[in-house]
Amino acid sequence: MTSRPEELIAYFGMKPLPVEETYFINTYISEAKTAEGGPAGTAGLGLYLTAPRSASTAHVLTFDEVWHFYEGDPVALYEFHPDGTARTILLGRDIAAGQVMQHTIKAGVIQAGEVAPGGTWSLFACTMSPGFNATCFEGVTKSELRGKYAGYEEIIERMGVPDGHETSLPADYVNERFKS
């Protein structure tokens, strides 16, 4: 019997993203281009798992990213701000418990995400305008984060890009688009 996450991965053709490990597929890539040649907008589906592990390691984007919760267990989003503050946002359906179904992470804020503690899988979406491309992404290593965000030491060790690991996407990287 196929599990729901396996069904979603197969149906959408999701593949792990380089550097950050999220199962992902673009569902929309605008044909309109920015002055720099990137897409004017993108939307995609992501899937986090606890086994095998799938998560977004620490990274920073040059454009705002809007997150949307769809199904499964809540998502823990971690924000590391330039002023040394950090916070956790729970993306999920239980708004009475403080979860949010949509959240925007501003450009320049270091972010990471995973299935919230106690969960096993999460399906979410991300939209960006201008759209996501290889040049707007940069992974952030554990050593770049260590000692800067009190109370987040364990999360930094789990979510930071390992030192010495590639932090940039290949210049020609394009995530495939789902074709219905």
Please write the string of helix (H) and strand (E) elements: HEEEEEEEEEEEEHH
End-to-end Cα distance, whole Å, is 24 Å
- CATH topology-level name: Jelly Rolls
Strand content: 35-45%
Give the name of the CATH architecture. Answer: Sandwich
Q: Please report the total strand number as a whole number.
A: 12
State Rg: 16 Å
Secondary structural class: mainly beta
Q: Considering the protein shown, what is the CATH homologous superfamily?
A: Jelly Rolls
Largest sheet: 7 strands, antiparallel
Question: What value does the average pLDDT take?
Answer: 93
What is the overall silhouette? globular
List the domain count as a whole number.
Answer: 1
Helix content: 10-25%
CATH class: Mainly Beta
Low-pLDDT stretches: none
Give the number of helices: 3
Description:
- The structure is a single chain.
- It is built from three helices and twelve strands.
- It is mostly beta strands.
- The protein has a single domain (4-159), classed as Sandwich (Jelly Rolls).
- Strands 1, 2, 3, 4, 6, 9 and 11 form a seven-stranded antiparallel β-sheet that branches.
- Strand 1 and strand 2 form a beta hairpin.
- It is globular and about 45 Å long.
- The two termini are 24 Å apart.
- The mean pLDDT is 93.
In brief:
With 180 residues, the protein is mainly beta. The chain has helices at 4-12, 142-145, 153-159; strands spanning 15-16, 23-29, 42-50, 53-54, 56-61, 65-72, 75-80, 86-91, 102-105, 110-115, 121-128, 137-139.
Write the SSE topology:
Elements: H1 4-12, E1 15-16, E2 23-29, E3 42-50, E4 53-54, E5 56-61, E6 65-72, E7 75-80, E8 86-91, E9 102-105, E10 110-115, E11 121-128, E12 137-139, H2 142-145, H3 153-159
Antiparallel strand pairs: 1-2, 2-3, 3-4, 3-11, 5-10, 5-12, 6-9, 6-11, 7-8, 7-10
Protein name: Cupin superfamily protein
Domain DUF985: 6-138
Pfam families: Cupin_5
